[in-house]
Amino acid sequence: MEIHDSVKAKKTGSVQFPNSWWGRSHRDLNYIHEPFNNPDDVAMWNQLGYTQTRFTGDMYDMRQPEPEWIAPFRELLSMKHFSWSVYRMRPGDVLPNHRDTYSKFREIYNVADPETIRRYVIFLEDWQSGHYLEMNCQVIPPWRAGQGVFWHNDVLHLAANVGKTPRYTLQLTGVME
Ligand SMILES: [Fe+2]
Fold first, then answer.
1. Which of 18, 60, 140, 151 minimizes the number of CB atoms within 10 Å of its CB?
2. Residues 66-81 pLDDT 10s
3. Model pTM?
4. Ligand 1 midpoint to CA 21 (Å)
């Protein structure tokens, strides 16, 4: 596994896992859709002219049983308060530029300094046409399964699926001290 931290105070970087040991297991989870957790952002997007009735994708997270293929990530990344969420964006799902608030994470683990929070987005399948991610207003080029990016705290990002197939990622959150 390689981790590349950028020079910019290690606020963003990329990661590459040696293989994709999860295969297709992520496809069969019981995904649940919940509204995006920041109503101020949704109000702004509506004002900008977005006509979606739903933003963001579907999640399978820690409220449900942990799939066995998650454990190796926990060991390889050694983050404090390791938290996971498998994320599916269906064709047509969009999530415009926003900053994560980690409100639940910070509440549960009582994190005083949000700058210590690291969020990974790991791509579970090879890139397919229409699958999109920007971090810090930079396009992430087409990816392979097992590659990923990370950012700290409030780095801007957006994701969308304007393709024909579901877009699957694993979101990992933890604290780097
Ligand atoms: Fe986000």
1. 18
2. 999 999 999 999 899 9
3. 0.94
4. 25
* Dist CA 139 CA 159 (whole Å): 10
Amino acid in the structure at residue 49: G
| Cα(166) to centroid(ligand 1), Å | 18
**Residue 132 in contact with residue 162, Cβ under 8 Å?**
yes
Rounded to 5°, the CA angle 71-74-76 comes to 110
Distance (angstroms) between ligand 1 centre and the Cα of 160 equals 11
Whether domain 2-176 has CATH 2.60.120.620: yes
Annotated domain spans of the chain? 2-176
User: Which comes out higher in pLDDT, residue 52 or 144?
Assistant: 144
Q: Quote the ligand 1 centre to 15 CA distance (angstroms).
A: 18
